[in-house]
Structure formats: C-alpha cells, structure tokens
C-alpha cells in the first residue's frame, strides 16, 4: 500500500526544476516540488507537504501533518519517503 507521507520542506533550489530537500522524522530526502510550486520555491520553505513516490502532492497545515504522523505511528506503519 502506498500513502502520502507528511514532510517539512527544509531547503529548495532556485527554480521548480530543482529538487527540494525535506525532513521526515529526522531523515532528509529530496522530492520534486513541480506539482505544488505556484511561485518562487523559497515560499515553500518550512511548509508541510504530502509526498507520494518522491513528488510533493499538496501543501498541508502543520497540525494535520503531526496528526497524520501520529496516526501512522499508532498503526506501526514505518514512515519513509521514496528516494529516486
């Protein structure tokens, strides 16, 4: 089963064509932000997003992100983000 994983964007490149770096439970991964970036990538710094197969799919609020991570932990689902 594949699900969207909440992650926080910690760094971005100069354009949407550069991968952003995200943090998921203390692990850093690179993800594609092309589907959610509507302006300058820098506006996404610190934002929480749902990632599925290496692509940020939507921006979510921090409370929803933490609630989802807690629910996944309660279900003993190991959280990871695909690395291409």
Write a structural description.
- With 84 residues, the chain is α+β, with helices and mostly antiparallel strands.
- Helices cover 15% and strands 33% of the residues.
- It has one helix spanning 62-74; strands spanning 5-11, 20-24, 27-31, 48-52, 55-60.
- Strands 3-2-1-4-5 form a 5-stranded antiparallel sheet, covered by helices on one side.
- A hairpin with a 2-residue loop joins strand 4 (48-52) and strand 5 (55-60).
- It is elongated, with a radius of gyration of 12 Å.
- It starts with a strand and ends in a 10-residue tail after the last helix.
- The mean pLDDT is 89.
Give a short account of the largest sheet. Answer: 5 strands, antiparallel
Overall pLDDT? 89
Total E-strand runs: 5
Q: Give the helix tally.
A: 1
Secondary-structure element order, N to C:
EEEEEH
> What's the N-to-C terminus distance?
18 Å
Question: Approximately how much helix is present in the residues?
Answer: 10-25%
* Strand content bin: 25-35%
What would the principal axes of the Cα set say about the shape?
Answer: elongated
Walk me through the topology.
Layout: E1 5-11, E2 20-24, E3 27-31, E4 48-52, E5 55-60, H1 62-74
Antiparallel strand pairs: 1-2, 1-4, 2-3, 4-5
């Amino acid at each position: 089963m594949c699900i969207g994983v909440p992650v926080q964007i910690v760094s971005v490149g100069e354009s949407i064509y550069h991968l952003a770096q995200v943090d998921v439970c203390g692990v850093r991964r690179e993800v594609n932000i092309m589907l959610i970036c509507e302006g300058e990538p820098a506006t996404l710094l610190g934002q929480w997003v749902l990632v599925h197969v290496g692509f940020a799919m939507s921006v979510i609020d921090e409370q929803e992100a933490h609630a989802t991570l807690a629910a996944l932990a309660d279900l003993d689902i190991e959280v990871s983000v695909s690395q291409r």
